[in-house]
Design a protein that fits this description.
Two copies of one chain form a homodimer. Chain A has helices spanning 17-33, 39-45, 51-63, 127-130, and strands at residues 67-69, 77-79, 94-96, 139-142, 158-162, 171-176, 179-186, 194-196, 205-207, 212-223. By secondary structure, chain A is α+β, with helices and mostly antiparallel strands. Chain A has three domains: 17-79, Arc Repressor Mutant, subunit A (Orthogonal Bundle); 99-132, no CATH class; 139-221, Umud Fragment, subunit A (Ribbon). Strand 10 (212-223) of chain A pairs antiparallel with strand 11 (212-223) of chain B. Chain A binds a DNA duplex through residues 1, 16, 18-19, 38-40, 48-53, 55-57, 60, 69, 71-75.
Amino acid sequence: MDKRSPKHLYTMKDLTQRQKEILEFIEHHEWRNGFWPSIREIQEKFEFKSTNAVMGHLRALEKKDVLERIPGQARTFRIHRPDDGDSTQLPKEAHEVVDIPIVGAIAAGYPDRVEGAGEIGRLQVDIGSAGFSSQRRSFALQVRGDSMVDAEIYDGDRVVIEPRDAHDGDIVAALIDGETTLKRYIKKAGEPPYLKAENKFYPELYPVTELCVQGVAKAVVRNL
Amino acid sequence: MDKRSPKHLYTMKDLTQRQKEILEFIEHHEWRNGFWPSIREIQEKFEFKSTNAVMGHLRALEKKDVLERIPGQARTFRIHRPDDGDSTQLPKEAHEVVDIPIVGAIAAGYPDRVEGAGEIGRLQVDIGSAGFSSQRRSFALQVRGDSMVDAEIYDGDRVVIEPRDAHDGDIVAALIDGETTLKRYIKKAGEPPYLKAENKFYPELYPVTELCVQGVAKAVVRNL
DNA sequence: CTTGACAATGGACAAGCGTTCACCTAAACA
DNA sequence: TGTTTAGGTGAACGCTTGTCCATTGTCAAG
């Protein structure tokens, strides 16, 4: 039986440990890849030997109203988040950038992206009507060290990272020795990519194979 | 559906009209529903009578490097948005990020946020890192000139301004000669305050009396 | 002891969905 | 004149994927 207390609008903390893990993986997968996982991908991640194990959890999550799916259709998740802010397995030291409503007076009027395409200042997201946030991708990263001073990025700055594939010349957040640092991503045609520090006193080049590039830096933010 | 806007936000360099429509539908679908469309859903929307019509366009879009997909897998799109390198233009997704108007110059008083008049763009920052206390009234100012290079603020950067009274040592946005510029605010006890440029080649000091201080700079944002 | 949640196995089916082949039209080259 | 590029039809083929069946086991509550 469901023992949700009736005063709770959103109860999502009565999730099982396993269910939380499933939910987090689904969210994380979307966050990283931009699309939702398939049931068999979830199965693989948790090393289930049957897809039905996943199905059970999905059914439970749907019954507990934290998930929604389109029956019969592939990779069509929808997550209802009252936002718990619990432990997400983001990269360490990363402030998650999430669930911040749009400020300003432009909240009204739902922009149809197709039509308003050229008009800047009208393209606003209406989280209210969507009811969920489809992409929580970007996050901010605190810069440590001075390996990027030649790119005018200093110790203590914050960099907005967007997880995606890096191109040549991008500044990327990479995981080196358990710590995320910024480097410039160099990829010449026909050559293996490598990472380079933007500091003349740091001539090191880091081979990319053993690294985990977590995303591309989009902007620097420094408090004054 | 008309297209009065001269330039799209995409790099629709050589995209066909039809290809633009397809791309926009895909983006729009993701934006509305939270997941990507299937090929047959695209087909339906455009009333194609063969899925192969969609396939052709997808192949074209992939070849033109605005799209990416995982072969054989359902609803696994990835859109390469050209918001990498430059731009005062912003990505169309404003998900989960604070949205602050960018103003080039402020004639007098504070920028009129309501209508977006005078806006030359919008800035998206993660709120956690910037710590804007009263984001509702904050605005971003495009930096012109190099009068603040010694404070690591460069031409083209954006500065988030919070309207409030300045204290000694604050960097402020001040109205000089009809244009808003950044200066450091100096106020010693018993002396009248004045403004100072952070550039050793700009030794000027501006008396504060005839100026209008519009707010205090709280953060610098520079796109990479 | 029974009941019911929770968790998982194993196998199988059918619909969803991406992909391909053959073939067609029209415009733009050259 | 042929060739290329963009756009489209029609019909399959087969992998992907969601779904359902029966079955096993644990654990806490009634």
